[in-house]
Backbone:
């Protein structure tokens, strides 16, 4: 214990300006959140899995003697790599994507509870709003990255390891390889809005429960329940407003002629879910009394 | 002149559900002071400090730090303020240095070299590149001080800084606080040890059951201290009691009573000495004479057990305020 | 734990409430007859052309096939709307190599899912079995035997006006004689527009034993009672259908008498 940092004068005639009189900007706080994510083993493992797991999955499905005909695009999954990539997209939308985004979004707030660090970060020069949006942006960024990695890895491994037959569209039409690449990539990209809605939902559950277990598992479980409810033909009205429905909106891209109504509708539904979940989470974070830690 | 107060909290109250944690507490700390908030566990000290930091919203009352309030200035209220609440917590998967770097980002950046400086101050420079997850409690406590100093504060708020430390750690921590205070820093610290507060603080607020039991200078507190008490063991308590009664008739203020396996003496310092002399003269064998509590400790217990008989007075003056047990403890 | 349960309960309540509101506002199913009737022929044509290519056939185009479909769900009492595996589509098209049966269409079974996609099973008599041999002699999956397709849930929902007649067929393999000497025969009127109507003439050789007028709803299998006794010793009778609505067997159907 040697020298002290020079303390500022004790008597001030005007209100003090804090540590160098600065407040942390959103960018700096976001960079800190990203830094924390990157340091976590779990996050790195998930990204690595998103990159690697599509390979054995593509191999396993291609090796089936009977194609999985009861799922959309399953009929040609063993003969066409494009179909295989879309079959995997169908499965991913059902539970993998909500789960993957929740691994970060469902933990990004509750991990502060888990480590007791709310008081650590809230006693710096960062307001709760800034911290909230930085965490939301970090979770959103992760969702985008994990979707991009999973999508690219799936398309690449399906096309390279799967069958070489051309893609059969959802109007029975045959689609050439060049257009198939664009359409399959677009189909994967079209799941971003519902994925972000689930990200917001995971953020809300993480904030409200203060539990990472709930924040990670609950959105995936809710997604499965919604998927089941949405598959019931008798609940058409409910199906329209569920955030799981837009995961299937890409079907319209693969018909001839294309239809984009579900994509637009899915964008609106996802935006409403995300906005509502984030609004509630924001209020909870702003109003919360931090008594623990 | 109120704007110049480092801490100006007036009439602050907070309840958690039906349980009042802090009731109408006023706390004023002038710049340059070393101020102690003293009270047993559950007295509401920590809740009060959390409210200063904006971690908890008060139900009533106003809080200003260097003239700024949360309602008007938001997080800028904490400009020039640093500290930690309860044991400082960090991200276990990051090293000490990484933690400090991150916290500096949340401060809007630290000047170059400051992180190394504060690590030196708390003597962690050589261990700062290990993950905090494996650190001892004392090291984390010191990292907490380092993280606070990183803000180059003018007001340092420390909640039970010596809590959980071993005797050497406590000694180091007190020395550190003292040196920081000598450097001109305003320090507000909470404690449940009278001796800690007595040793380093100029002024003190004693809290009990969420209310203020006393506030004023340590000197004022000393003046109010009751007579010290002693525990006396003899080979003939009966005779010792009789002799004590004789002496008590001559010297009012001396009280002797049976207590466990001996006698309890309460009275002015000189009288106890006289009693011992009288016992020796009377042929009573003395086996043990132990001071039971220091005067301030005795006062502390008196104030916080709700035994005060003094009337409440204007809270601007050093005063005793009736500490009633109706404000239940938190937790 | 309590906090977690409360949160999850609230989430489910919100979803339920949103659904209730959406249902109340009027979320009719997007699965309708008209949308299916527009989507299926296009998908069928594409698959049929894929099959033709596998078989090495040339000269067929979507325009030359000109497929049209009439779809309906369940029986006459089931509204033709909503997801379910009980849809039937009657599809007619023109391919010189594959003449249509007298009724002019093949019957496709369609399972429609809630997500506006559907799975079609074609009639093997007209489209072939699940696997076929392609022009190079390899066994390949028949693209028309079973295929998936999707339709636009916001697509044109005005009726297409395509109708196909029901097909009347005797189901009984013998003419049953009841205890009172009267006989009966069970017939089926298949999916189609208007059901089946006409007159059934029961012939013993060249002699008409009885005339039974009938009027049957589509997708029904009633038993027609013949108000005449079959002469003793008659081994077989002929059923001659004169149809006014629907398609009946053009030739007399010969049934043994029991």
Residues:
């Amino acid at each position: 214990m040697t020298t002290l940092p020079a303390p500022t004068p004790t008597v001030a005639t005007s209100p003090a300006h804090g540590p160098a009189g600065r407040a942390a900007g959103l960018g700096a706080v976001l960079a800190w959140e990203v830094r924390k994510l990157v340091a976590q083993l779990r996050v790195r493992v998930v990204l690595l899995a998103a990159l690697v797991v599509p390979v054995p999955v593509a191999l396993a499905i291609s090796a089936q003697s009977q194609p999985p005909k009861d799922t959309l695009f399953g009929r040609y999954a063993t003969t066409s790599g494009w179909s295989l990539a879309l079959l995997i997209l169908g499965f991913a939308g059902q539970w993998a994507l909500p789960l993957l985004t929740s691994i970060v979004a469902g933990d990004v707030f509750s991990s502060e509870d888990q480590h007791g660090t709310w008081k650590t970060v809230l006693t710096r020069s960062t307001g709760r709003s800034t911290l909230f949006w930085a965490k939301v942006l970090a979770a959103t960024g992760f969702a985008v990255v994990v979707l991009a990695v999973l999508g690219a890895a799936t398309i690449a491994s399906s096309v390279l390891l799967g069958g070489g037959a051309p893609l059969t569209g959802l109007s029975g039409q045959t689609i050439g390889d060049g257009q198939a690449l664009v359409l399959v990539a677009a189909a994967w990209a079209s799941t971003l809005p519902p994925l972000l809605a689930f990200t917001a939902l995971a953020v809300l559950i993480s904030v409200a429960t203060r539990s990472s277990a709930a924040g990670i598992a609950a959105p995936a479980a809710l997604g499965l329940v919604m998927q089941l409810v949405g598959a019931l033909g008798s609940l058409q009205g409910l199906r329209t407003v569920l955030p799981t429905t837009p995961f299937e909106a890409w079907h319209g891209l693969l018909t001839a002629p294309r239809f984009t109504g579900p994509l637009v509708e899915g964008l609106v539904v996802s935006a409403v879910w995300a906005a509502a979940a984030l609004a509630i989470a924001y209020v909870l974070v702003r109003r919360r009394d931090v008594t623990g830690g | 002149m109120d704007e110049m107060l480092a801490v100006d909290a007036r009439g602050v109250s907070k309840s958690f559900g039906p349980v009042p944690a802090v009731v109408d507490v006023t706390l004023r700390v002038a710049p340059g002071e070393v101020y102690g908030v003293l009270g047993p566990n559950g007295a509401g000290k920590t809740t009060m400090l959390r409210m200063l930091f904006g971690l908890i919203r008060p139900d009533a009352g106003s809080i200003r730090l260097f003239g700024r309030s949360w309602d008007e200035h938001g997080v800028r209220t904490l400009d020039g303020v640093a500290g930690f609440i309860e044991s400082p917590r960090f991200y276990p998967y990051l090293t000490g240095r990484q933690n400090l770097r991150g916290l500096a980002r949340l401060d809007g950046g630290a000047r170059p070299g400051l992180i190394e400086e504060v690590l030196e101050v708390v003597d962690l420079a050589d261990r700062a590149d290990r993950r905090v997850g494996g650190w001892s409690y004392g090291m984390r406590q010191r990292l907490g001080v380092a993280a606070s100093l990183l803000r180059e504060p003018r007001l340092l708020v420390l909640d039970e800084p010596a809590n959980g430390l071993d005797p050497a750690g406590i000694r180091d921590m007190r020395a550190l606080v003292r040196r920081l205070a000598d450097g001109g820093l305003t320090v507000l610290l909470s404690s449940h040890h009278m001796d800690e507060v007595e040793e380093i603080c100029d002024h003190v607020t004693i809290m009990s059951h969420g209310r203020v039991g006393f506030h004023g200078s340590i000197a004022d507190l000393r003046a109010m201290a009751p007579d010290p008490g002693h525990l006396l063991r003899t080979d003939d308590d009966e005779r010792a009691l009789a002799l004590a009664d004789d002496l008590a008739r001559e010297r009012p203020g001396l009280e002797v009573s049976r207590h466990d396996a001996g006698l309890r003496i309460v009275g002015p310092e000189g009288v106890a000495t006289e009693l011992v002399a009288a016992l020796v003269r009377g042929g009573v064998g003395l086996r043990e004479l132990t001071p039971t509590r220091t005067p301030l400790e005795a006062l502390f217990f008196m104030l916080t057990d709700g035994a005060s008989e003094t009337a409440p007075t204007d809270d601007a003056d050093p005063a005793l305020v009736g500490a009633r047990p109706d404000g239940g403890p938190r937790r | 734990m309590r906090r977690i349960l409360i949160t999850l309960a609230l989430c489910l309540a919100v979803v339920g409430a949103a659904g209730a509101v959406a249902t109340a506002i009027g979320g009719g199913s997007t699965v309708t007859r008209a949308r299916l009737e527009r989507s299926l022929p296009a998908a069928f044509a594409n698959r049929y052309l894929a099959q033709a290519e596998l078989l090495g056939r040339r000269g067929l185009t979507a325009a030359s096939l000109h497929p049209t479909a009439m779809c309906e769900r369940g029986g006459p009492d089931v509204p033709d709307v909503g997801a379910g595996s009980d849809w039937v589509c009657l599809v007619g098209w023109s391919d010189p190599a594959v003449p249509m049966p007298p009724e002019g269409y093949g019957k496709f079974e369609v399972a429609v899912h809630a997500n506006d996609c559907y799975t079609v099973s074609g009639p093997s008599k007209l489209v072939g079995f699940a696997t076929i041999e392609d022009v190079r002699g390899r066994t390949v999956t028949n693209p028309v035997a079973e295929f998936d397709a999707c339709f636009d849930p916001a697509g044109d929902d005005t009726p297409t006006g395509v109708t196909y007649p029901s097909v009347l067929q005797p189901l009984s393999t013998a003419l049953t004689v009841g205890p009172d000497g009267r006989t009966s025969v069970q017939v089926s009127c298949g999916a189609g527009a208007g059901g089946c109507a006409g007159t059934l003439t029961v012939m013993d050789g060249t002699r008409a034993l009885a005339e039974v007028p009938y009027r049957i709803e589509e997708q029904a299998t009633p038993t027609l009672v013949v108000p005449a006794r079959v002469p003793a010793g008659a081994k077989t009778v002929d059923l001659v259908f004169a149809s006014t609505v629907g398609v009946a067997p053009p030739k007399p159907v010969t049934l043994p008498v029991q």
Q: What stands out?
A: The radius of gyration of chain B is 23 Å. Residues 2-80+153-224+300-320 of chain B form a domain with the Rossmann fold fold (CATH 3.40.50.300). The mean pLDDT of chain B is 82.
